[in-house]
């Protein structure tokens, strides 16, 4: 278990980057994070440097959406509703009829 010491703190600090209000703040905190952890977790830091830009698109959204985008609750709720409705039908006459139901549910959620 000695190999987990410090790992939780490292990942927690990385998650804090997404609490920032602007992309500039997030990049600044990322640079600080990389300096702090690159000696202890070099592979993780290399991977983060290569892939973090994809997740920074989050900051291009309006600030009011950030709270909802940090969570998968909306997606989980849609999946639960699809499960509930398809369970009632049990057997669909065709694949297309199942897709129509799912599209209608997605449109309703939208």
Hey, roughly how much beta strand do the residues contain?
under 5%
The chain-level mean pLDDT equals: 85
Please describe the biggest sheet, giving its number of strands, its sense, and whether it closes into a barrel.
none
Rg: 20 Å
Number of helices: 6
End-to-end Cα distance: 45 Å
* Basic shape: elongated
The computed structural class is mainly alpha
Low-pLDDT ranges: none
Share of helix among residues? over 70%
Q: Please tally the β strands and state the result.
A: 0
N-to-C order of helices and strands = HHHHHH
Count of folded domains? 2
Summarize it:
The chain is an all-alpha fold and 110 residues long. It is built from six helices and no strands.
Topology:
Elements lengths: L6 H10 L6 H15 L4 H14 L7 H7 L3 H17 L5 H15 L1
Helix pairs in contact: 5-6
Structure notes:
- The protein is mainly alpha-helical.
- Helices cover 71% and strands 0% of the residues.
- The protein is built from 6 helices and no strands.
- It has helices at residues 7-16, 23-37, 42-55, 63-69, 73-89, 95-109.
- The radius of gyration is 20 Å and the shape is elongated.
- The mean pLDDT is 85.
Jot down its keywords.
6 helices; 0% strand; 110 residues; single chain; 2 domains; mainly alpha
């Amino acid at each position: 278990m000695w190999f987990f010491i410090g790992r939780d703190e490292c990942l927690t600090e990385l998650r804090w980057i997404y609490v920032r209000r602007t992309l500039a703040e997030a990049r600044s905190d990322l640079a600080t994070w990389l300096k702090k952890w690159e000696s202890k977790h070099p592979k993780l830091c290399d991977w983060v440097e290569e892939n973090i830009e994809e997740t920074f698109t989050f900051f291009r959204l309006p600030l009011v959406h950030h709270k909802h985008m940090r969570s998968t609750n909306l997606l989980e709720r849609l999946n639960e509703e699809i499960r509930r409705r398809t369970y009632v039908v049990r057997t669909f006459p065709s694949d297309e009829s199942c897709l129509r139901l799912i599209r209608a549910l997605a449109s309703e959620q939208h």
